[in-house]
Amino acid sequence: MKTNFIEELKWRGMLHDIMPGTEELLNKEMVIGYIGFDPTSDSLGVGNMVQIMTLLHFQKAGHKPIALVGGATGMVGDPSGKSAERNLLDEATLNHNLNSQRKQLEKFLDFNCGDNAAEIVNNYDWFKGFSFLEFIRDVGKHISVNYMLAKDSVKNRLENGMSFTEFSYQLVQGFDFYHLWKNNGVKLQMGGSDQWGNIVTGTELIRRKASGEAFALTTPLIKKADGTKFGKSESGNVWLDKAKTSAYKFYQFWLNASDEDAKNYIRIFTLFNKEEIEALETEHEQAKHLRVLQKALAKDITIRVHSEADYNSAVEASQILFNGSIEDLAKLSEELFLDIFDGVPQFEISKSELSGGIAVAELLAEKTQVFPSKGEARKMIQGGGVAVNKSKVENAELSINKAHLINDKYILIQKGKKNYFVIKGI
Length: 426
Description:
By secondary structure, this protein is of the alpha/beta class. It contains 21 helices and 15 strands.
């Protein structure tokens, strides 16, 4: 059943700017619209999910989505929201990145549904034969320098300087819109709110160069409730590629969202309808400690980005972390074990030293630096605050030996409720 695209964006909090006449056009006919994606990595990140979901809702409303991967613009660099010029990529790297992103986009959009089947285009295809002289003659003469200087993406960088390459970016993106308008019937460009200036340069070029009409809308830039940047965890960017961000870490990223952020994210990043979301919010308010919103959000998006099997593994690993036994830990693959405890302090000890056994207080204070002294180790053990392989230690003289190595490799130490350490036998 087709939805009303603009109404869908509004109630989900996904509409920022919209050009007059856009909604009327969308209600009148099937519209072909596009969003551009930056090919500077071989994976899209969760930050790109806003635009992926925009295209998905666009298609569900009966319109035809086009994802433009910027093979040409990736060689130039978009100044929007940037404080410095980014490194430019060679053609081989760009092609690798484009092919990888294409596979990810195909997970979300329907490329085989008739008239409004999704398409992917690469702007390198129409720029590779376009000479510089042709470009300044056919494009540059239609947009004044004054018009270009007035854009926030330019004004914000002028004080520290920006290259002509980046200054010209809005003309390149504007020509993308013109080319797709002329050759593909595209009437609408969408993107993040930081792209508004570049997008309307395209509508202006279409108007001045061909007396045509085109439209624009943007989505808000997502910010976390605490003001920090969305799309990053403590260990860096959160990617859609499992090789860059494991399914477990991906799941944890959403599960660890604050209540305020979860209310925002569940509207933007899932396909739950309004009634389903409001029901989840009501259930969440009745028992916030159960994290109903976060669990529903993490489940939905992990399955769609990865798979149900990956989601089930992530949930099982999470449960083992909080409630598991040594038997549960031993069932984990080494990859998943290290993934769960990535970033925790690690120490090494030779297996030969463990052969005869080492008192746990000595192991944690002298052979490793879990505690600064044996006295502190003993004190915390007596208070019930130390666990080895998820089993609470009650005796500071407990002998730790090779038999304690999980899968003959690791010993997991827990100090207090949240502090973990891994000791590796070598």
